[in-house]
Amino acid sequence: MKKILIIIFFGVLLVAVIGVVNAQEALPTGGDSFETAVKLEPGSYEGGVMKKGDSEYFYINVKPGQDIKIEGTFKALSDSMGEEYLTLYDEDRKKLTEIGATLEKGQQETFLFSWLPNTDKDLYKYYIKRECTWVKIGALSFELSLTDRYDAGSQTDAGDTAEKAINVESGEYKGYLSGKAGADTKDFYKVAVKKGKTLIVKVTPPSDATMSVAVYDKDRRVLKDEYASNPGAIVTNSLLITKSEDVFAGVICDRYCSEKLVAYTMNITTEGVAVEDEDDGGAVIGTGEDTTKDEAEKKGSNWGLIIGIIALIIIVAIIAYFLLRKKKQ
Ligand SMILES: [Ca+2]
């Protein structure tokens, strides 16, 4: 009896361990078209054998700033060659990227692809199509994951226009652009600046990205843009502000910038002293206020000193005059 209990105990334990290790689930049967695509959640999947002409459609919902990553292994059957493709489409069924392999008998090939959307929508639907394009293919195992690549500590992607900019102040921020692996090519940030100060936007890219930084006024006119001269160059856009208002810093990584995801650091600083902006109704602005007041006080006290000395001289002169007159008498 005791023996049987021990065997049952170890049996249950073994099943539990296998269950934990083998968290990979069977890929559900996909739809046969975009209309009937089957929803996938992030996770590990294993799909079945397919023959030439077979295809399956799936979809996944993604928030702006979330990077879709699919990593896995194409596998041929031991007795057959074959060719397989995975294709990613956007909501409008436009092909974004695809990956495939032509396999010899028993051959395996690993793959990885990713896609970072931009900020046009609150939620995206992306389609994934799996198809066998030649002879037969074996099981496909892959992991589908969504990684948050939000900008400047927000919960979303900084937009690619001034209207969709994220508010920032002086400080250091982390941000992401897609390079060729996605549609996130520009991140816009809104900064409130004071006339007379110099705004400095410094962007440090990864070593293989050639980025640019443009600063626009509130009417979306470029005030100044700076381009990296070579991949990995730090880009610093520094300009004297001539009007107290919101400006927009556009951090850009578009064509020819990078093959892959770009994680960058942005430093925003201001230097110098703000001056009074006539358009601001004569208000004293920003950190310049203290300095201006100090200077005014300093000037005031200087005048006080001069008047004091003159008054003292006059008083001494009057006293001397009266003393001299008394002596004469
Ligand atoms: Ca971004």
Write up this protein:
- The chain has 329 residues and is α+β, with helices and mostly antiparallel strands.
- It has two domains: 21-148, Jelly Rolls, CATH 2.60.120; 162-276, Jelly Rolls (Sandwich), CATH 2.60.120.
- The protein has two helices and 20 strands.
- The strands form four sheets. Strands 2, 4, 5, 7, 8 and 10 form a six-stranded mixed sheet that branches. The chain has a five-stranded mixed sheet with strand order 1-3-11-6-9, with no helix packed on it.
- The longest helix has 41 residues, at 288-328.
- It is elongated.
- The relative contact order is 0.12.
- Residues 151, 157-158, 175-177, 184, 187 line the site of calcium ion.
Please summarize what this structure is.
This protein has 2 helices and 20 strands. With 329 residues, the chain is an alpha+beta fold.
